[in-house]
Amino acid sequence: MVGMNVMRVFTITGSNPALLNCSSRILSSPVKSTKLGCLKTSTCSYTTSSHPFGKLLFRQLFEKESSTYTYLLADVTHPQKPALLIDPVDKTVERDLSLVKELGLKLIYAMNTHVHADHVTGTGIIKSKVPGVHSVISKASKSKADLLIEAGDKIYFGDLFLEVRPTPGHTLGCVTYVTGDGPNQPQPRMAFTGDALLIRGCGRTDFQGGSSQELYKSIFSLPKNTLIYPAHDYKGFTVSTVGEEMLYNPRLTKDQDTFKHIMENLNLPYPKMIDVAVPANMVCGLQDLSSKPVEAASN
Amino acid sequence: MVGMNVMRVFTITGSNPALLNCSSRILSSPVKSTKLGCLKTSTCSYTTSSHPFGKLLFRQLFEKESSTYTYLLADVTHPQKPALLIDPVDKTVERDLSLVKELGLKLIYAMNTHVHADHVTGTGIIKSKVPGVHSVISKASKSKADLLIEAGDKIYFGDLFLEVRPTPGHTLGCVTYVTGDGPNQPQPRMAFTGDALLIRGCGRTDFQGGSSQELYKSIFSLPKNTLIYPAHDYKGFTVSTVGEEMLYNPRLTKDQDTFKHIMENLNLPYPKMIDVAVPANMVCGLQDLSSKPVEAASN
After folding, report:
1. Whether A39 and B224 lie within 8 Å, measured CB to CB
2. Which of the listed residues A99, A206, B54, B124 has the most CB atoms within 10 Å of its CB?
3. What is the DSSP letter of A46?
4. Nearest to A107, CA basis, from A83, A90, A87
5. Which residues pair with A110 in a beta bridge?
6. Is A163:A190 a contact under the CB 8 Å cutoff?
7. pLDDT tens per residue across span A91-102
8. In chain B, pLDDT over 90 holds for what percent of residues?
């Protein structure tokens, strides 16, 4: 599987999904209580109709130390409930896998938007703990992973899929994963931008082959109403939209020369985790796990 | 307005909302770039069709020091885009009001689920900065606010509304705000539970008139598929569901006696902010603002 390049990478297509319906209780009395025991015996799945994104189950998860967002996506109408994690962090793998288990999901991909410099990806640990999970990163990142994706690739999980859009600038190999377009796909679309586009900001462009010119050109090629889910936020925002960032992003609303000047004069300190994180993330977090029984350890 | 008790509290009903449509560009080339200038001149509003909750614009915001979530809700199809904030924090008021302004919203309510003991509410500062905003808290909290709400009250913002459901236990006056039921209301419903129900946890019950018995009885009277948005999370979760908590909440899945025993033996330290936060929050954060030109300063 190492270095495999794919246009369609997941074979569970799961037509004719059976969407279960929960019968919601609308209480006339706001403090009417129900015994816990009978609620637990209900046969209604807690994952159905429990999310505003249609058949997509979606969870945004936060790692406080590095202010990193990890995203869990699953097709809960598919019998196997195939799921993927975007940008998992090593320190929160237990939390993420516990949630995957509780929700009854089958994790099939552990994906990275790019080679992170501020934390170690959880991909390697996940692969060691969950047989069958495949690591995913862009070919342009020059990293090792089970699946090396490129522009236009579609990553299927059940009937849902993510499109791959290169958004270089922060690093040469940055990609944005965008939910698919179509009647069964979530609307509005959702973009997992990594560090390329942050809420009211963007990733630094002075390391790892970054280029402010490339970032500037690539960043607004997404549809305007796309929901932006970045890899980090330091001010407590959880989501934005492309259109909102077009109007209010303090860097990317500048003309291209001004933007380039800003990015070249940020005078940011050397990233404290870069010398640990980048070597680890170039092999999808498998560097410390080589002596352990890791699936696809040939990475 | 002080102490006013209401069943319907907002008069802008805004029928016949004009839902603008954005024409999304679906790019065949994933790296096709668009000049920023022409994008900025678009007349398409960035708030329309940019959220998965129908006419509800919804933002979850995080205050890192106290791990508090603040929620911004607005009816963006109403001409005035009326909005409310649930559980704002004093330290992040500038961020919240800046977002309200950027999104073109009209803030009408600053609401609290209860008298917080771990941070000072932002309600007072908001009232001093935005004329016309009304503070909201439960009558049972015995606090001062412009609107003292009770069980069954509906708080309208445009065509959307929140229902008030008492969920005492953490404090005597805790309420949960639940989005309305109906064809124009967001589905699934969303519950802003304060500290009554946390994700895989619940608020402590050893201060401020708390009662583990009351919390236990009240907590699962919400519909099972209701999305849970708590006032805090310390592990990086952002949302859950009532059904999920019924299955996996480590405290609330216990029988009532065991739950009571757990809550009585948590041996938690005295809350470090309680002596500052509670007196301030009993007057909705207006304690330091009495000498300033605050609207409704008679609170």
Report:
1. yes
2. B124
3. T
4. A83
5. A85, A135
6. no
7. 999 999 999 999
8. 45
Given pLDDT bands bounded at 50, 70 and 90, which one contains residue B263?
confident
Residues of B in contact with A218 (CB under 8 A): 31, 33
Q: Which residues of B touch A235 (CB under 8 A)?
A: 95
- The CATH number given to whatever domain includes residue A102 is 3.60.15.10
CB contacts of A44 in chain B (<8 Å) are 224, 243
Q: From the CA of A76, how many Å to the nearest CA of chain B? A: 14
Is there a contact between B62 and A238 if contact means CB atoms under 8 Å apart? yes
Residue A220 and residue B39 in contact, taking contact as beta carbons nearer than 8 Å: yes
Rounded to two decimals, the ipTM of the complex is: 0.78
Interface test with B, best of A92, A155, A239, A256 (most B CBs within 10 A): A239
How far does chain A reach from its first CA to its final CA, in angstroms?
9
Q: Give start and end residues of each alpha helix (H) in chain B.
A: 36-40, 93-102, 123-129, 212-219, 242-248, 256-264, 274-281
Nearest CB to B63; choose among A33, A53, A236:
A236
> Which pTM was predicted?
0.80
The domain containing residue B101 runs over which residues?
Answer: 53-267
Amino acid at B252: L
Q: Do A92 and B30 make contact, defined as CB atoms within 8 angstroms?
A: no
Q: CA-to-CA distance for A156 and A245, rounded, in angstroms?
A: 28
Q: Indicate the number of domains in chain A.
A: 1
Find out whether B290 and B279 touch, Cβ atoms under 8 Å: no
Question: Tokens representing B255?
Answer: 């029988």
Give the residues across from A148 on adjacent strands. A137
Helix (H) or strand (E) holding A274: helix A274-281
Distance CA B284, CA B299 (A): 9
Q: Does residue B12 sit within a domain?
A: no
Angle at B244 between CA B240 and CA B245, to 5 degrees: 85
B34: in domain: no
Q: Of A26, A220, A235, which has the smallest distance from its Cβ to B181's Cβ?
A: A26
Contact between chains at B166 and A217 (C-beta distance less than 8 A): no
Q: Dihedral of CA A80/A84/A90/A91: which sign?
A: negative
Tell whether B170 is covered by a domain: yes
pLDDT digits (tens, 9 = 90+) for B24-46: 222 122 222 222 111 122 222 33
Residue at A19 is within a domain: no
The nearest CA of chain A is from the CA of B60 a distance in Å of 6
Cβ neighbours for B48, distance < 8 A, ≥ 6 positions apart: A225, B19, B20, B21, B22, B76, B77
B236 closest CB neighbour out of A46, A51, A95: A95
